[in-house]
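pasting for ref
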Amino acid sequence: MSTPASDNRRWALIGPLTIALWIVGIILINHNGPADHASGSEILAWYKSDTDTIVLGCWLFMLGCLGFVTFVAGSAGALRPLSEPDPSCRGSPSRAPQWPASSGC
């Protein structure tokens, strides 16, 4: 029994979600950050006052990284048939070199 194409491509939705998690994570990590030339005590005070926001931003960024790994794994699964031998082409052992140029056989 084969699955519909939409079920096989749900992994592709993880790509935009990954980017959104990275952006929100970086915004939260840098929210109300100390000045560029802040002293050590000012930086420490900022970390102490915004600990929850920083931790949440780090977790969101990490989930974005996990989503990226999932997206790459899904992409590899979708592109794998292109690297299998194409019986209709005698000169090319696989479809992969021809795929970017869409030249066919």
